[in-house]
Amino acid sequence: MTKPMTLLGLESSCDDTAAAVVRRDANGVHVLSSIVAGQTDLHAAFGGVVPEIAARAHVEKLDLCIEQALAQAGLSLADIDGIAVTAGPGLIGGVVSGVMCAKGLAAATGKPLYGVNHLAGHALTPRLTDDVAYPYLMLLVSGGHCQFLMVTGPDGFTRMGGTIDDAPGEAFDKIARLASLPQPGGPAIEQAAKSGDPARFAFPRPLMDRPGCDMSFSGLKTAVMRTRDAVVAEKSGLTRQDQSDLAASFQAAVVDVLAEKSRRALKSADPRPTSFCVAGGVAANAAIRTALQAVAVEFDAEFIAPPLALCTDNAAMIAFAAIEQSELRGPDDMTLSARPRWPLDTSQPAMLGSGKKGAKA
Ligand code: KG4
Ligand code: ZN
Questions:
Q1: Shortest CA distance to 167 belongs to which of 201, 140, 190, 149?
Q2: Mean pLDDT of 9-13
Q3: Domain boundaries, given as residue ranges, for the chain
Q4: Range from 49-58, 214-223, 333-342 carrying the lowest mean pLDDT
Q5: Which of 14, 124, 137, 235 is 20 to 30 Å apart from 34, CA to CA?
C-alpha cells in the first residue's frame, strides 16, 4: 500500500483562481476542500478573458483561496505533504502567478513542489471521481481545449485527434455574443436552444467528410455569423425566436460533430476502451452529454462525466494528478517554469492555434 499523501493544489491557468486539498490514504481519495474564485465579472465588459487582468486577479486571489482551502480541510500548511501547481498550458501570466506562489510556499515550508500539466489534471479526473481503470478514452472539451486522449496511465496520454482551430466553448461564447445572449455563452445558448428549431438553419458539420477524429469549429462560427447577418439585414434585428433558432441549429451542429468524432475515436482505439469519459466546461451541456452517452452505449462502454465542479477548472484535479503521478516521478525543484504550451502527447505534431482562453496544445 502506498503511503498516505495530502497535497495542496493550485490552479490559475485561465480565468478561475483555485486552491484545493486532496488526500489519498488506505480508504481511497478524498477531496478535503476545493475553492474556486471566478473572474467572470472582471472580464464581462471586454467580451472575453483579458490575460493581463486575469494574471493580476490571480495574484490578488491566490492567498485567500489557499487560506479558505486549508480552513475548509481543517488543516494548516504544516499538515500538507507538498504543493502541486498548474505549470501549463495556459495564459502565461496566470500560470506564472500560480507557479511563483507555489514556489514561495515550498521555499517557506520546505515541502516538495509538483508542477502539473493542466490537461493531465482534466484527463485524470475520472480516476478521482469514479476510480476508472486504465485505459480509458477521454474527450476533453472546454473553452480552451478539445481533444480525444487515450489515457493509459498517470503519465500515459495518446492524442487521437483534436480541434485544428477553435475550441467548442470558444464557439459557444462567440455565438452567444453574435446572438446578443449573455456570457458565458455555453449555458445561455443551451437555454435559448430549448425553445429553438434545430432544423431551421442548416449549419455545416466541419471535417465530417475527412477520416479520423480531428475537428474544426471556426468555419461553423463563421457560418452562424453570416446567417445572423442575413437575418438582421432582412428584419433589421433578431427576434427571440431567431435567437433560439440560431442557438438550437448551432448546438445541433456541435452535437453531431462531437458524437460522430467520438464514435470514430471509440471505433479506432486499440485496445477498445471500456470507459468513455468527458471533462471540461462544455461537458455541462445536457444535449452534448446525452448524445455522447448514446455513443458510449453503441460501443458497450461505460459513460463517465464527472460532476460539474470537477469537470470545469479546479485545483482538486491538479492536486490529484500530482498524487497519481507521484508513483512515477519525484518532485520538481525551484527551476520549475511556467509553460504557455505543453502538449500531453509529445509524440504527435502540435495542434494549430491558440484559443482566446489559452493554449489548446
Ligand atoms: O472548462 P472551463 O470552465 O474552462 C476552460 O475553458 O478551461 O470551460 C468554460 C467553457 C466556456 O466557453 C463556456 O461557455 C462553456 O465551457 N460552457 C458550456 C456550457 N457551460 C459552460 N458550453 C456549452 N453548454 C454549456 N451548458
Ligand atoms: Zn481547463
A1: 140
A2: 96
A3: 5-124+313-359, 134-309
A4: 49-58
A5: 137
List the CATH code of the domain at 5-124+313-359.
3.30.420.40
Reference 243, options 203, 200, 280; nearest CA is 200
For residue 250 and ligand 1, the question of a CB distance below 6 A is answered with no
State how far the Cα of 270 lies from the Cα of 289, in Å rounded to an integer.
24
Ligand nearest to the CA of 358: 1
Q: Tens digit of pLDDT for each residue in 126-169? A: 999 999 999 999 999 998 889 999 999 999 999 999 999 999 99
Torsion angles phi and psi, residue 212, rounded to 5: 90, 180
Among 13, 95, 138, 172, which is best to mutate for testing ligand 1, by the most ligand atoms less than 8 A from CB?
Answer: 172
One DSSP character per residue, 272-283 reads PPSEEEEESGGG
Is residue 324 pLDDT above 80, yes or no?
yes
Model pLDDT for residues 61-89, shown as the tens digit of each residue:
999 999 999 999 999 999 999 999 999 99
Domain boundaries 134-309, corresponding CATH code:
3.30.420.40
CB 20 within 8 A of CB 33: yes
Contacts of 193 (CB under 8 A, 6+ apart): 244, 247, 248, 250, 251, 287
Mutate to test the pocket of ligand 1, among 140, 250, 282, 292 (most ligand atoms within 8 A of CB): 282
Q: Is the distance from the beta carbon of residue 306 to the nearest atom of ligand 1 less than 6 Å?
A: no
Distance CA 358, CA 355 (A): 5
